[in-house]
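Why do we bother with holo predictions? Because pocket geometry can differ from the apo form. Keep that in mind while you read this record for zinc ion.
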Amino acid sequence: MCYRLDCKKCGKYSWGGCGKHLSTLYGSIEQGKHCNCHPWPGVVMPSSQTTTQNKETVTQNKCAPTTSTAGI
Ligand SMILES: [Zn+2]
Ligand SMILES: [Zn+2]
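The structure, written out:
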């Protein structure tokens, strides 16, 4: 079973052990406190957040008022 260590470089939590239980260990550590100095094999980390926004195109239908002047 793997265990967490205090990284002396960044002050966050690193890991030690066999390296096969890192997904469990990674989940037990708070977000933002994971050491980035050592790799976490087997752990999927959200490196970059990509937000795609769909722009809604508003089509305005201009209804031109037709004024018909009826002469008497
Ligand atoms: Zn382990
Ligand atoms: Zn570190």
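Residues 1-42 form one domain.
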